[in-house]
UniProtKB/TrEMBL annotation:
This is Choline-sulfatase. Residues 129-138 have a biased composition (Basic and acidic residues). Residues 117-126 have a biased composition (Polar residues). The keyword Hydrolase applies. SUPFAM superfamilies: Alkaline phosphatase-like (SSF53649).
Amino acid sequence: MADEYRFPPAYESAATRAFRSRHLTAEETLRDSGLEFNSHYIMTAACAPSRTSFFTGQYPPLHGVSQTDGIAKGAADSDMHWLDPDTVPTLGDYFRAGGYETYYKGKWHVSHADLTTPGTHQSLPSYDQRGRRDPRAERTYLRANRLDGYGFDGWIGPEPHGDDPLNSGSSARGAGGRDAQYAGQTVDLLRALSKRRGQQAPWLVVSSFVNPHDIAAWGSFTKRLPDWNLTGQLEGTDVPSDLFDEAMYAATSREDLRGKPTCQRSYVATYPKMLQPSPNTLEYQRFYYQLMQNVNREIQKVLDQLAADPQMAADTIVIFTSDHGDMLGAHGGMHQKWHQAYEETTHVPFIVHNPRLFSGRQRADVLTSHADVLPTLLGLAGLNEGKLRGKLERTHTEVHPLVGRDLSKFILGKAGAATVDDPVYFMTDDDPSQGEHQVSISRRMYESVVQPNHVETIVTQLRTGPGGALETWKYSRYYDTEQYWSDPGSGGGRGRDGGKDVVTLLRGNVERRGGKAAVTTVKRRPAREQFEAYNLARDPLELDNLVHSRDPAVRVTLTRLGRTLKQQRAAKRKTPSTGSVPGQAKP
């Protein structure tokens, strides 16, 4: 698994496509003897919610991990919730219950699993000041076995985030990065498993990398700091200068967002205050592709070690995907992955690789989702989900049927595309602009992104094309919800139960002494819903928001899309059975 690694957008140039085929070597290796799904979508964003959803096969309203720490929220803040090991079972829990040895290497971000100095929130590093692996610290993490409660062994922390460049994927000056460490840890594990081949239970290994997430460190301030190596990674780069089709990229990067949900313009304006100014320059864009090359180099080391044992390689199914993508300046200059459901964020790679199953390269255009991965892996392993749920119900409080589809018969060529051609559902409540640390780098409090900024989306295929041809549509609802108000009330999150949201912002530099003016706002009703709709077949850049269309045929389609969204919400957006969440709306 990579982080922030998007599917190629429609506006990439021929030069960039050539760069991908020549220099993204791990992807190319996986495509050889692999099946690539061209229309694969994440369940939610951003990092922590997406990873928790991926590994549990359930959406945030059930597992509770809806927010990402690191901007306005800290890992231990009252509005940050992590996955409890005894509630919703994970991929590791399912496979361990099925008799597998299960291992996890790399970025986790599902719980706060770091070892810390007692009395502090300071994480124990497992690397030295030159970014090299520290064997003693690694052994400490291995003995602690911090992910055992989540069904995995072998995790070595700390989590790769924060303001220390040594804890980045590859961006510390004069030092190694976490991705090189993760590759080395996984190679060591595979080598040990190879030596024990035939004398052990079947195994499952997660190898989870950071990059191209280091793009989040890029900005006007970070570039000046001596310990960060950002622009230096572009020296002698293979990344082309003509990354994008000039006209197509200009259409999206300079887009006027006035026909879109209002939170999008607010997000563009708020982002520099949340983090730092990050001009949308060619250098910035090239850095993202350099990071993709960097992580491919590390993933290739893992694939080479697997290939070193041909029998083990033949017996191993490898999947490659990412937790989400990155906007990289598209849609009016957006960065990262929040407050929208555009292709750059939600559409990610998904490749299934095995030299025994696939001869050459195969591709599939069916719509798929991260929700499908866990049931599909169980199917490929011949494990019965229902029986495993029965075992897990003895140890976990929230064991629900998985909401995704088992695609194993389709992958194995035993079922056609029509059997798996269903809509996919995406949702996000993640708001990094709101929290207990809502202070900019200039030490001034800022207003969070305006509501409605929560999103739920479907992607589906309808016969709206010429002659009834299938076309892919995307339909999104933007909503406000009491669940994330300061006082969410006691009911169903629709503003009818006494809930209120009280926000107080100090004026001026918060670190200066003396009295300060403050502005307090009180909200008692959710903001009005807003909508988006795109025909991706005719508008792959998602520029024309069709909710404003007066075309009768489009209006009929919008009604149908609205019904499908409600159906998908009811089927997939489960809530806890052990109690109610204040302010949480029922599907």
